[in-house]
Structures are given as C-alpha cells and as structure tokens.
Design brief:
The complex is a heterodimer of chains A (302) and B (101). Chain A is α/β, with parallel strands linked by helices. Chain A is built from six helices and 17 strands. In chain A, β13 and β14 form a beta hairpin. The chains are: A alpha/beta (302), B alpha/beta (101).
C-alpha cells in the first residue's frame, strides 16, 4: 500500500510528488499519457518566478526528473476510478488497482471541441487546438480562430504574424479576453472580425478547405480557410471520479484553496478544481498544498 | 532497430518500398509533444523488429509534410505496401501507437 497516489503528472501532480517524497511518504504517480501535462505545448514560459525563459518541455522534464530522483514511482496507466473505504483508498486504472491512504487528483483539463461532424477526422488536416504548435503550417495561408477568450485572442495575434488572413469568429459582439490584446488585434490589417457568429460546418476534401459560419439571424456564409484553430475553452478531466467526488456544473472538482474535496483523504490540485487563476505557478502551488494536506491525512491514520 | 531519419530523397526507398509496415513520425525540434513521444517510439523501435519507424523533420521536409497533408504535429502516419493505412495526431500512449500497425 502506498501512502499517497497522485493521479496526473502535470505541474500540479509532479509538485505534489516532490513535496510528498520530501515528507518521506511513499508516492505513486499515475499518468495516462506522458509527464508534463498541457504545459508541454507552450514553447516559451516567461512568467514563472526566477525562470525568465524556459520551454514547456524543458520545464516539465526538469520537474519530472526532480520528482523521480526524490523517489516517486511512476506508472503510465489511465486512472478510471477511485474506491473509498475510509482509511484505504483504491485507485482503479485501465490495467490494475492500487491501494493507498490518500489520493491527489491532478488530472488537469482537455480542449473543448466544437462538436461538428468530421471535426475529429480533420484534426491534423486543418483543424487544430494549438496555434503555437501548428501555426507554422499556415505561413501565407488563410486561417480562422474561433473563440472569445484570451486563448483565442492570443492565438489570433500569434497567427497574424504567420498567416495571410486571420478570421476571428466569436459568438458574441464583444470579447471576454484582455482589452490590450483586442487593441493589438484591431491594429492588424490582416485580422478580420466575425462577430455574433458560430462555425456550423467543416467543409473538406482531403483536408479542410472552408467553413460555414452562421450568424445569430440564422444567415449562413462560407469562408475559405486552410486552417481552423479552435479556442473555445477547456473541459476538466474529472468524469471518471464524478460518482465519488463532488463536481460543479462545469465539471470542476469543488475544492477551495485548501484543495480538499468532499471526501476525507482525497484532494484536488491544479486546473481540474474550482479556482479563478489557472496558471503554471498556481498549479505548482496547489501541488504543495494538496501534498501537505495528504501527508497530514496519511499520518492521522497511524 | 533504430529510428531512421528520412528526407524527401530517401522517403520512397525507406517508406513506400519498405517490406515492413512503417510508422512515419512527422515532428519538429520546437514541438514539445514531439519530444515527449520520442522515447516511446525509441522503445517500440527497440522491441519490434517487424515494424520500421522513421522520423521526418517537418522544418527541413516541408514538401513531405505538404504531400501527406500533415498540419499538426506530432503526427504518426502508418504505411503498408506503399500506402497510408492509418494516422494519429498528438501525443499517444504506447498501446495506442501499437494498435495503429
């Protein structure tokens, strides 16, 4: 039996592993994919204290190595549920079951899809959820960004330097994102705003060739684009724990800054819990808070 | 077997004319998920002699990326007998990559 099992090896989970190992607890980290979480998509992190520039990949690799050197065990399996019998908790993965005293859920979030026909089929053939990853393929081409938050605005600005034309499609007539970015976008001749509209159809032969956009009066229009960047928010990956753990309407674990969930001994850290600022530094902070609480809980069972 | 770096000039011989199924890994140095995927591909290359794995750097080989409609990386394209049979975009665990072949 482990003292603490951490589900998710992103910045929150890895930081939790570091803190728990430094408190001499046995630690198992379960990860469905690869360590690092969504930060590995960021080419350059500029807002982490004492680190003016680092790539997301380098950052993630360093934190992973730090946790591993301290003695955290890693198993690459997807956790699909937690069973709670008070002093013992069992984490169920697609392949095994692991017992522990305390659990930290640090599963993060995934990109929200538009939910259109062929969307999945066209990922990598014109549809993308990451402008900084895939923007380079659209040099001199026409692209559209859909969304109204900071990610959409920043994606549009990033793509404006690369693409010939950037259509920014938003279902309302004003953006939720930062005014400063909106101002920068308005100064770009190649950025065209399409307000009060949603993308209603993806048109493709072998790859995306155009999109159908419908405005709030129900009028449809076709825009020729080579690429569509979807930035309509993220969905927390908590569905597998919903039976046991209380989630809010949007699917986030209801947990405050203390990272405590409705179940004693189960904690939530990082982007998957209710919080106002989802940043690298707050994910790491959650890892420290949740690990400290989990250590205290494990000790209380002696 | 090691992963072979492939260019436009060697693509036909290494991929299209291969007698084994080929996983072509389209990637770039600046792509974090691509670097994450690499150890898994190295592992598969070491374990499976019946599969050939090749790496294509899209910054140097933009023609190949264009010809095969690659617009997101990492992108794994599986070729059998000279034709594409499956592809997968994004970081994937080992079991899912093996399912492609």
């Amino acid at each position: 039996m482990y003292d603490i099992i951490i589900i998710g090896a992103g910045p929150a989970g890895l930081t939790a592993a570091i803190y728990a190992r430094r408190a001499s607890k046995s630690v198992l980290v379960l990860e469905a994919l690869s360590y690092g979480g969504q930060i590995i998509n960021t080419p350059d992190i500029e807002n982490y204290p004492a680190v003016p520039h680092v790539s997301g990949f380098d950052f993630a690799t360093k934190v992973y190595q730090q946790a591993e050197a301290l003695g955290a065990e890693f198993v690459f399996e997807k956790a699909v549920g937690i069973k709670d019998s008070g002093s013992t908790k069992t984490v169920v993965t697609t392949e095994n079951e692991y017992e522990c005293k305390a659990v930290i859920i640090a599963t993060g979030s995934e990109n929200r899809k538009l939910g259109l026909d062929d969307e999945e089929k066209l990922v990598g053939r014109g549809v993308s959820y990451c402008a900084t990853c895939d923007g380079a393929f659209y040099r001199g081409k026409k692209v559209a960004v859909v969304g109204g938050g900071n990610t959409a605005l920043e994606d549009a600005l990033y793509l404006a330097d690369i693409a010939e034309t950037v259509y920014l499609i938003h279902r309302r007539d004003a953006f939720r994102g930062d005014e400063a970015t909106v101002t920068s976008l308005k100064q770009r001749d190649n950025v065209k705003f399409v307000f009060n509209s949603t993308v209603t159809k993806l048109i493709a032969d072998k790859r995306l060739t155009s999109i159908e956009v419908t405005n709030k009066n129900g009028e449809a229009d076709t825009i020729e684009v080579n690429g569509l960047f979807v930035a309509v928010g993220r969905i927390p990956e908590n569905q597998n724990f919903a039976e046991l753990i209380k989630l809010d309407e949007a699917g986030y674990v209801t947990a405050g800054e203390d990272c405590e969930t409705n179940v004693a001994g189960i904690f939530a850290a990082g982007d998957n819990r209710t919080k106002s600022v989802r940043q690298l530094v707050t994910a790491a902070a959650d890892g420290a808070v949740a690990a400290t609480a989990a250590v205290k809980f494990a000790d209380s069972l002696r | 077997m090691n992963i072979i770096e492939v260019t436009k000039d060697t693509f036909e011989a290494e991929v299209l004319k291969s007698d084994k199924p080929v996983i072509a890994d389209f990637n770039a140095d600046w792509c974090g998920p691509c670097q994450m995927l690499k150890p898994t591909l190295d592992q598969i290359a070491g374990e499976r002699d019946d599969i050939k794995i090749v790496s294509i750097n899209i910054d140097n080989e933009d023609d190949l990326a264009y010809d095969y409609n690659v617009s997101s990386i990492p992108c794994l394209v599986v070729f059998k007998d000279g034709s594409e049979v499956k592809r997968s975009v994004g970081l994937k665990p080992k079991a899912e990559i093996l399912k492609l072949v």
